[in-house]
Amino acid sequence: MIAGLGFHLLRAGRVSDLWLDAVPTKSRRA
Amino acid sequence: MILLGIETSCDETAAAVVAGGREIRSSVVQSQIDIHRVYGGVVPEIACRAHIETILPVVEKALAEAGTGLEGIDAVAVTNAPGLVGALLVGVSFAKSLALAAGKPIVGVDHVQGHIYAGRLAFAELAYPCVSLVVSGGHTSLYLSRSEIDHELLGSTTDDAAGEAFDKVAKILDLGFPGGPAIDRLAKGRDPGRVVFKRTIPDSLDFSFSGIKTSVLYRVRGQDARKPMSLGAEERADVAAGFQEAVVDVLVEQAMKACARTGAPRISVGGGVACNSRLREKMKDRASPTTPR
Fold it and tell me: B150 pairs with which residues across the strands?
């Protein structure tokens, strides 16, 4: 699903640069 | 256009090669469930270390199964949000290095939108606009989707995600981790009306599951949460069925309300909790040729 959605984002010109950051949010924890 | 996708937002290291946004040439998933089970949930630091160990073999396997090398890939897509920050960092750093070394473009992907896109992967005929319900361990949200990449947030959980509530209730009932499949199995064939939990359905399109979770805790262990679980097998199954029914009712009700308010004629459900058999059953029951499908 990441590669599939990436295809549509790329086609729409939303290419990222190599400064791409990881953006966290609250997620499931033990 | 052929893309290599990389996902490390939580407890699975995954890579896939997809052509034209739909043709899946390979999909490799390395689950960490066995590592985290003993803790009753995902431990972020352990998840990050496991991603570091598995990401290279997983990507190599995905490329090999697709019968290609990096030269056959046009771009790299990677989950960059949302998730556990350390886990995301492993995938993003790896993808950036790969893209730089191979001279390929890179695209950051929001994995919640990926859950929505999974519906499109499974059903090519899924048309827009539609209401997208994302129910997973970390997220419970409703969107109005106008295209594969245009999603307007309508509402989301104000406390626990539905999947998180399933995991926590499974822990209360001593059912182990992950909780969703365990509760689904235990509740199958039971009368969900034997133990009823109050549904929290706000006027908005938001969700709230912490109240149901606490009700289960008090029902099972009383006011002292440290007391061991003492329910018999029958009562435990009834509690599981009653809890599942309450969560599913809220999800279905809010999704139908979103359709009524936006005028969208169909619903797409994504995320891990979309596997829940009762949710699928009730969502289908409420949908018909005259109401959202």
Answer: B147
Is the CB of B121 less than 8 angstroms away from the CB of A8? Answer: no
Closest CA to B19 of A9, A11, A7: A7
Residues 6+ apart with CB under 8 A from B151: B113, B116, B132, B143, B144, B145
Nearest to B17 among A3, A5, A8 (CB): A3
d(CA B62, CA B52): 16
For the segment B188-217, what is each residue's pLDDT rounded down to a tens digit?
999 999 999 999 999 999 999 999 999 999
Collapse the DSSP code of B233 into the 3-class scheme (helix H, G, I; strand E, B; otherwise coil) and give the result: helix
Residues B167, B199: Cα–Cα separation, whole Å = 18
Is B27:B14 a contact under the CB 8 Å cutoff?
yes
How much is the average pLDDT of B76-88?
Answer: 96
Q: Are A10 and B3 inside 8 Å of each other by CB?
A: yes
Average pLDDT, chain B: 95
- Helix (H) / strand (E) element for B76: namely strand B75-81
CA distance B221 to B131: 38
Instruction: Map residue B123 onto helix, strand or coil.
Output: coil
